[in-house]
Amino acid sequence: MKTAITGATGQLGQLVVNKLKEKGYGESIVALVRSVEKASDLGVEVREANYDKPETLNNALRSVDTLLLISGSEVGKRAVQHKNVIEAAKQNGVQWIIYTSILRADTSTISLAEEHLATETALKNSGIPFTLLRNGWYTENYTGSIQGAIAGGAFIGSAGEGKISSAARADYAEAAVAVLTGEDHQGKTYELAGDEAWTLSDLAAEVSRQTGKNIPYKNLPESDYAAALVSFGLPQELAQAIAGWDVSASQGALFDETQQLSALIGRPTTPLADTVREALQK
């Protein structure tokens, strides 16, 4: 029984591979990656899988029973890329696909949801049994900005007092492993988010507490936040997208209190304070 994992050298993918190895599943893992050279230290079987080259996908999915399809990183190209993977999975007789989607993909106002929803539809049309892991925001999406906020003297954003039910990336990896190694998950959709909801003001307060510095949160109009991100070197299109995600967050798009993630992993999700502490130690 072979279990393939796409994006296995990515941040989430590596965590999943390592957690599966810790549980003794190393022999059955196939890491699907664009660059085989970059995956030499994973310690599992590695196969080339380029989303844009279907011929590599057919080779990559030979003799694979279960596929963890971790959503790609190229926004705007993912619906087509994921469809290529699903088609190759169908041709190779894959028996089960687990897909990392986005929280409430079918109703979310976050622009990223469109591609995720297209992939969910492709899965439904494929006839292959599947499970949807609709992941909320990673806490690291925000703690990655801590050093910049400290340098600039403030956190900035457009999320207002919107509550964000985030969890650590490792929590979502653990959920994927729980599904891969558990039973009775086929056909299910999990809305995954952190137990603890917080605002960007709460994040700023936590960073201030841990650093002993006064780092306030400044809420900006969407256009001003996008302009600030461009001034930091982000491409215009990405800056506008990030600012738009914050506006959706202000309207509750990232809030969830069902606690399906902690139920799946069998423990509380990682507190905000812990992920902030980890970011400050880097």
From TrEMBL:
Pfam families: NAD_binding_10
Start and end residues of each NAD(P)-binding domain: 7-181
UniProt cross-references to InterPro entries, sorted A to Z: NAD(P)-bd_dom, NAD(P)-bd_dom_sf, NmrA-type_oxidoreductase
UniProt superkingdom: Bacteria
Gene3D superfamilies the UniProt entry points to: NAD(P)-binding Rossmann-like Domain (3.40.50.720), UDP-galactose 4-epimerase, domain 1 (3.90.25.10)
PANTHER family: NMRA-LIKE DOMAIN-CONTAINING PROTEIN, QUINONE OXIDOREDUCTASE 2
Protein name: SDR family oxidoreductase
